[in-house]
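Recall that a protein's primary structure is simply its ordered list of amino acids. Everything else, from secondary elements to tertiary packing, is in principle encoded there. The following example makes that idea concrete.
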Amino acid sequence: MKRSNLSDPYSTRDFATRWTVRLLLAIYSVIVMYPLLWNLMSSFKTNQEILISRTAWPQGFAYDNYIRAFSAANMSGFLINSIIVVVVGLALLLIFSVPLSYAMARYKFFGSRALELIFAACLFIQTIYIIIPLYSLLFNLGLLDNLIALSLVYASVSIPFTSFLLAGYMRTISQSYEEAARIDGCSNFRILLHIIVPMAKPGIITVTMLNGISFWNEYPMALVMLRNPAYQTVPIGVANLFERQMRATDFGALYAALIMVLVPVVIIYLIGQRHLIRGIGAGGIKE
């Protein structure tokens, strides 16, 4: 007679393990979501309500906090500058990284191994360590306070990480598709553009999202390269707003500005979360 799964000690152990993991994830979710919800709730409070109680629900919805943050604090200008930097930086990054990743995944040539080792070493170089030579280079070229130059810097320092992640994903694509395309007379460029890129779309979306969020939140490089307030990006604008609003005790506008900065990142993640998980998982697989 077959034993019931309920009496199986392994089934009981697996059941307990699953619920323990779920409980830990639920606790972690609450810890992560609480500051975000608290920030959102505070953005609709008046300054008097915030000073009286920081944890109480708002008695009304002070929408004028967002109006002051958007107009008086020039958040609109910061947002536009950040969008320009992120869009141009991602475009430059993909233009250089996609062909490079394909070459790393498919071709073996003289010096290819050394090139991969150099890129691997670059993964451990933080931008803060090379910020002084980068500043000197842009200063000598007259490219300070230039959003396109900052985008190029972001793209350059992100190429090693992006190339390794994309190369790992492209290695999971069967080479039979490329062989069939070559029999039909396709060039290497057409194979990359019409076969590899569509099939590697989850990986490309993954690196686009990860780098886009990184470009959006980057602070030290933008602080050093952008001295003119007219060209400053969101992280610098929020830091300046924090100093100004703390002296003016306009906490509602400060919280509203933080929510305005978080909204684009949350929207991007919600749109591409499935591609993000799939791309990261497949990027670690090697044939």
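Residues 1-7, 283-287 have pLDDT under 50 and may be disordered. The radius of gyration is 24 Å.
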